[in-house]
């Protein structure tokens, strides 16, 4: 009897202990699953150092200290590390880690920026980390960013762009994407695809700015907001009367043909003369880049004249370099430039600063980086000049040519953002 009672007591004691043990095991399994899902794998942890940072004093670079500028030249010659897109793909596979490691959770938004959201159309095709750094330099939770990647881009680059869009709630991929070929209408259509998507977004942005992967801002977000408010609805872009040589681009029919070098296909001039532009439109030229008001974009999106002009432009050479420049001169468009007004050159328009080799030492100092097709890829010695010339964006930048300049621009822009926010607003909301 005593033996039976002892066994019964043992069972009663054992079963609660077993239940506790099973509960503990279940909790441990949940914990392991949670860790696997939220904490980075060892491979991803290795990539938290997102891209190579160089030991350089950017304040001394900005002040044109010869020793530090000389040091940047040595780094450029001997120590440039290529930033692999694969590491961005790995990092964006864990969005909380990506957002934390790149500081997107620590971006401050003033009331001024919140009340004046901006939109961006980014047409890109390579250098994934450079695209991410461009977005980060422009980033505000109140803004919206459309990414149009070239359909011909590498699978790794596309994965990196998809990763950015997945991790950042105000970044999205264009719903329709083009195979983009140099100087063809596909480049123009890429921006038009983004503009259409941006108009359909819930963000009621005030201005839209288009950029490519080798552009970089020269103003912080709050500075851009301040500058754009001064426009009071006007547009900012280059628009000039065409020279005789530029007229050839839209006087003749061009055909997209195979090319044996990097562009793959190029528009080639034929002897077929085109009819004049529809609706008696007077032609102007500029470049592919713009700062456009929302009202202007709404107008062109529904305009029959604009649709006819786009169709007429499809077989021209580099239509993006006359399309916007001409539209902004049309009678009655919101924020337009009257046809009788003087030319607005690229140096007069603050949209985008490009340094042409044949104008160096005439209009601006020599290129301290390298030239590609007569365009300067900027070097670190131009940091002070770039930030003080007065433009809002510049082209071209390439971390394989001079990573120091990009690193120092990032540092200076962050510094200016903090300074201007502290002056503009007493309160700052983190996104």
Automatic annotation (TrEMBL):
<dbReference type="Pfam" id="PF02485">
    <property type="entry name" value="Branch"/>
</dbReference>
<keyword id="KW-0325">Glycoprotein</keyword>
<comment type="similarity">
    <text>Belongs to the glycosyltransferase 14 family.</text>
</comment>
<keyword id="KW-0808">Transferase</keyword>
<keyword id="KW-0328">Glycosyltransferase</keyword>
<dbReference type="GO" id="GO:0000139">
    <property type="term" value="C:Golgi membrane"/>
</dbReference>
<keyword id="KW-1133">Transmembrane helix</keyword>
<dbReference type="InterPro" id="IPR003406">
    <property type="entry name" value="Glyco_trans_14"/>
</dbReference>
<keyword id="KW-0735">Signal-anchor</keyword>
<dbReference type="GO" id="GO:0008375">
    <property type="term" value="F:acetylglucosaminyltransferase activity"/>
</dbReference>
<keyword id="KW-0812">Transmembrane</keyword>
<protein>
    <submittedName>
        <fullName>Glucosaminyl (N-acetyl) transferase 4b, tandem duplicate 2</fullName>
    </submittedName>
</protein>
<keyword id="KW-0472">Membrane</keyword>
<comment type="pathway">
    <text>Protein modification; protein glycosylation.</text>
</comment>
């Amino acid at each position: 009897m005593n033996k039976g009672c002892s066994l019964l007591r043992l069972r009663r004691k054992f079963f609660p202990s077993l239940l506790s043990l099973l509960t503990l095991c279940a909790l441990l399994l949940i914990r392991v699953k949670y860790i696997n899902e939220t904490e980075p794998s060892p491979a991803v942890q290795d990539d938290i150092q997102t891209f190579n940072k160089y030991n350089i004093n950017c304040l001394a670079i900005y002040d044109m200290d010869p020793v530090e500028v000389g040091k940047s030249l040595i780094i450029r010659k001997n120590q440039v590390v290529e930033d692999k897109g694969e590491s961005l793909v790995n990092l964006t596979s864990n969005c909380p880690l990506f957002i934390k490691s790149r500081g997107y959770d620590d971006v401050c938004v003033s009331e001024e920026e919140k009340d004046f959201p901006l939109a961006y159309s980014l047409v890109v095709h390579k250098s994934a980390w450079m695209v991410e750094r461009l977005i980060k330099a422009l980033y505000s939770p109140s803004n919206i960013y459309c990414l149009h990647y070239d359909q011909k881009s590498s699978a790794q680059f596309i994965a990196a762009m998809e990763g950015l869009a997945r991790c950042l709630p105000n970044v999205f991929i264009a719903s329709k994407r083009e195979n983009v070929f140099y100087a063809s209408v596909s480049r123009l259509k890429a921006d038009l695809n983004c503009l259409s998507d941006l108009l359909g977004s819930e963000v009621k942005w005030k201005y839209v700015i288009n950029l490519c992967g080798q552009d970089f801002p020269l103003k912080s977000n709050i500075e851009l907001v301040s500058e754009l408010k001064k426009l009071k609805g006007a547009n900012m872009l280059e628009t000039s009367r065409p020279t005789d040589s530029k007229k050839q681009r839209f006087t003749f029919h061009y055909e997209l043909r195979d090319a044996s070098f990097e562009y793959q296909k190029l528009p080639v001039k034929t002897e077929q003369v085109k009819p004049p532009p529809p609706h008696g439109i007077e032609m102007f030229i500029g470049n592919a880049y713009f700062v456009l008001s929302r009202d202007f974009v709404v107008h062109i999106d529904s305009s029959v004249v604009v649709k006819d002009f786009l169709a007429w432009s499809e077989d021209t050479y580099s239509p993006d370099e006359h399309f916007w420049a001409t539209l902004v001169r049309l009678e009655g468009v919101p924020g337009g430039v009257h046809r009788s007004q003087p030319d607005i050159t690229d140096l007069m328009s603050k949209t985008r600063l490009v340094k042409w080799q044949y104008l160096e030492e005439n209009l601006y100092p020599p290129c301290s980086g390298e030239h590609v097709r007569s365009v300067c890829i900027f070097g670190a010695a131009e940091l002070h000049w770039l930030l003080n010339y007065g433009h809002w964006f510049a082209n071209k930048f390439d971390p394989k040519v001079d990573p120091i300049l990009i690193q120092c621009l990032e540092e200076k822009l962050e510094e200016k953002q903090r300074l201007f926010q502290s002056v503009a607003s007493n309160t700052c909301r983190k996104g």
